[in-house]
Amino acid sequence: MVDMKLSPVVTTWAFSNELLARRMSFLSGPRQVGKTTSALMHLEKLGQIEHYYNFDTITVRRKFTANPLFFLENIPEPPRPPAAGGEPKHWVVFDEIHKNPAWKQLLKGFSDEFGHFIRFLVCGSAKLDTYRRGGESLLGRYFLFKMFPLGPKDVVEGDGFDLTRAWIPGQAPDLSRPSREFAEAVDSLWNLTGFPEPFLKGSKSFYRRWLDEHLSLLTTQEVRDLSRISDLVRLQSLALLLPERVGSLLNVHNLAQTLSVAHNTVAVWLDAMEQVFLIFRVPPYSARLSTSIKKARKSYFWDWGLVEDTGKRFENFLAVQLSRTVSAWNEWGVSGFSLHFVRTKDGKETDFLIVRNKKPVLLVEAKLSDIEPDRNLLYFKKALDVDLAFQVVLNDDFLKQAAPGLFVTDIHRFLNLLV
Questions:
Q1: Cα–Cα distance between 117 and 120 in angstroms, integer?
Q2: In the chain, at which end, N or C, are there fewer CB atoms within 10 A of the end residue's CB?
Q3: Angle at which helices 263-275 and 252-259 pack, to 10 degrees?
Q4: Correct CATH for 11-147 of 3.90.76.10, 3.30.70.260, 3.90.1150.10, 3.40.50.300
Q5: Could you report the per-residue pLDDT of 193-223, keeping only the tens digit for each?
């Protein structure tokens, strides 16, 4: 294993005073992806570790019941009128506070009264991201950030990640061969997972045990807490049917027939699995192609280790890395990016298309070892007038420019472009 600086790079902007101004930071993402650990590491650097409060614990709930402003007891600076300029000096982390029914009203009050000298960092998984959408009581008081499974830059750069040097479409790509350390990080992620505990353990047998437990947690407790779904056995059966469908158009009607349930029931279950960060779905792009499909989506797992087929797993691995990068670009304030695939009714298809402000800017095709440029990649590059296209292969070291703006490259070089 390489010498690692493991720390999700999202913290370099999600914990940035410059970006946040006086807003709260909401950090959402899958279970066990490292949100709490990152928050604690941040508090430790500030010398404010005592400002962490987990509302899952009876101790914190008891303190809150006795005094809703209990968190002020560990802050030496008393409340004062807002000063002109300056940033909040103290950070307070509320983990799982969204389990309190009145959490939005509480945070609104805390932010309005104490936001001039306290920065509130709110961590949570599915419910935080879902429940925040109901009503607008917090509008203008927070920025939402998402922490996803690890990428190689989380492993080798960590909190040393330099935002000013990050590549975005429109800039010339640097396709020089990355360091050995970076390549080893990519290989370790590919062979294991992007979730910190099994990744750091480095054992496939441990990972398989962890994965079974993680999958069970998401498809029982998390789904049950989030929704009114009661048929958890068949929902788990649906989850087990999805890996073989990775990379293919998701046919909800066929899934409903297989499970002997209504079409709408499967649709609701898929939404629930997306909300608990088990899967994510990628929509088709159709704006510039009259023959493109318009409705069917593709599904991928946040944990690519669930996918046994090597080709599908490679596509899933790339989907996660592209999705987290698109999210990062939008969170920096570069904005306007979205991830799609492109497919015509006659079967022409390219795995991924990144669009910015309705303009296609980057095409990506995943191939295990085929170094001949895919004809559909060439077709869509011309049809959509895309400046840059990549065919990414699972090779150790390969780079070829197949046409102007079209490259066939190894996974290490390509991921070195991303976040």
A1: 10
A2: N
A3: 110
A4: 3.40.50.300
A5: 999 999 999 999 999 999 999 999 999 989 9
